[in-house]
């Protein structure tokens, strides 16, 4: 077992001894594509928790950049990308060039632009120390530490939806005890 430290200093056990952990790897604070994706998880957070899943989201941004974003789940800063390396989460120059990114990217940029203009959000830092070409990854970790499922994104918008996450959690074999 290990403990990760959230933006606000809270310790988060991985694995969680009492529930599944959905460990998401996103890109950077203010990433329009990440924000678009996470909105679904925010909207359906109660449903995710009711399914016995704890959300933990890792960004390769420093805590200071992540602190202004209010999310109802654990947000882990990893500016040194140590967790990314440990879990094999990569980058790709083609992360934003895949056709599966075009429509979500347009939606994400439009949504973020409106939020920034209305002063509901700040834009991302103009320089990202770890780049903008990271790939997403999702891991579903059982209370015993085993990996129930994993997904390494092939492009910037290739990750589990809430419905996929809930299906994976429901389909996992019951613990034999």
Number of domain units: 1
Would you tell me which CATH topology applies? Glutaredoxin
Share of residues in helices: 25-40%
**What is the structural class?**
alpha/beta
Bulk shape: globular
What's the architecture, going by CATH? Answer: 3-Layer(aba) Sandwich
Sheet of most strands: 5 strands, mixed
pLDDT under 50 segments (min length 5)?
none
Could you characterize the architecture of this molecule?
The chain is α/β, with parallel strands linked by helices and 177 residues long. The protein has one domain (2-171): 3-Layer(aba) Sandwich (Glutaredoxin), CATH 3.40.30.10. The protein contains six helices and seven strands; from the N terminus they run βββααβαβααββα. It has helices spanning 32-43, 45-50, 63-66, 82-87, 99-117, 162-171; strands spanning 2-5, 11-14, 20-25, 53-59, 74-77, 137-141, 147-152. The chain has a five-stranded mixed sheet. A hairpin with a 5-residue loop joins strand 6 (137-141) and strand 7. The radius of gyration is 16 Å and the shape is globular.
Top keywords for this entry?
177 residues; 32% helix; 6 helices; single chain; Glutaredoxin; globular; 7 strands
Topology of this protein?
Layout: E1 2-5, E2 11-14, E3 20-25, H1 32-43, H2 45-50, E4 53-59, H3 63-66, E5 74-77, H4 82-87, H5 99-117, E6 137-141, E7 147-152, H6 162-171
Parallel strand pairs: 3-4, 4-5
Antiparallel strand pairs: 1-2, 3-6, 6-7
Helix pairs in contact: 1-5
